[in-house]
């Protein structure tokens, strides 16, 4: 492994030492591995994919007064400090900016094969067995109920429900997790998403069955 990658891993681990479970080092490590795995098939620039995956959550705007530029800036400064090539730094910074701007209405959003690969890897970590674990962890942190049979899943398909801060965790499957499969960019990402999506459907079936005592 390149020395610059080793230094980056050390830097990210240290920076995220006290991060919450949703965006801790293990999330980064999974996204990193998945992104490299997808890149084997998609053949993007491996170094760009690796740096972007490792640095994509270096400063979550949610915990930094909504500052969208802090993460990209920290990533840029760090990569400069270890003398990574200018072009690579620029590209990595654009990817991180674009990933954190995902909910904005920035019409001229940047895209590239590497950007699509890292975004797919990040989204894949929100679905499947790990995605389920993350959702219930978040729900527990927010003290939400697991499920409320009085609320029908279809009621949660609207954007409005997303703002409902007391919704049961099962709702999150319908408002976000089950929609991610169709948002994948790459063929390799789509293939992995399909397996994880099917697993979530199977999980939900089992969940409802057990809920009824069967
Ligand atoms: P990201 O940074 O990937 O956009 P978030 O910070 O919104 O993700 O969420 C981190 C993790 O917590 C994800 O796995 C996500 O699915 C989960 N999560 C976010 N909002 C909710 C929610 N309302 N209920 C359950 N899980 C949630
Ligand atoms: Ni992430």
From TrEMBL:
Domain HD: 24-127
SUPFAM superfamilies hit by this protein: HD-domain/PDEase-like
Pfam families named in the record: HD
Record PANTHER family: HD_PDEASE DOMAIN-CONTAINING PROTEIN, SUPERFAMILY HYDROLASE, PUTATIVE (AFU_ORTHOLOGUE AFUA_1G03035)-RELATED
The protein's name in its UniProt record: HD domain-containing protein
Source organism: Pedobacter punctiformis
């Amino acid at each position: 492994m390149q020395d610059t990658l080793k230094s980056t891993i050390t830097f990210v681990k240290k920076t995220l030492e006290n991060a919450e479970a949703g965006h801790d080092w293990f999330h980064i490590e999974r996204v990193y591995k998945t992104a490299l795995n997808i890149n084997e098939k998609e053949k993007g620039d491996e170094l760009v994919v690796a740096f972007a995956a490792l640095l994509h959550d270096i400063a979550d705007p949610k915990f930094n007064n909504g500052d969208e530029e802090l993460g990209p800036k920290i990533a840029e400064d760090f990569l400069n400090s270890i003398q990574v090539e200018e072009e690579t730094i620029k590209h990595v910074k654009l990817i991180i900016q674009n990933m954190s701007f995902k909910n904005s209405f920035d019409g001229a959003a940047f895209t590239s094969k590497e950007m699509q690969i890292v975004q797919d890897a990040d989204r894949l970590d929100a679905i499947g067995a790990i995605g389920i674990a993350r959702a219930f962890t978040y729900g527990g942190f927010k003290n939400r109920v697991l499920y409320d049979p009085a609320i029908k899943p279809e009621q949660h398909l609207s954007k409005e429900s997303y703002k409902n801060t007391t919704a049961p965790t099962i709702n999150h499957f319908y408002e976000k997790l089950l929609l991610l499969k169709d948002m994948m960019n790459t063929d390799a990402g789509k293939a992995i998403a399909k397996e994880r999506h099917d697993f979530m459907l199977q999980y939900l079936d089992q969940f409802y069955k057990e809920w009824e005592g069967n």
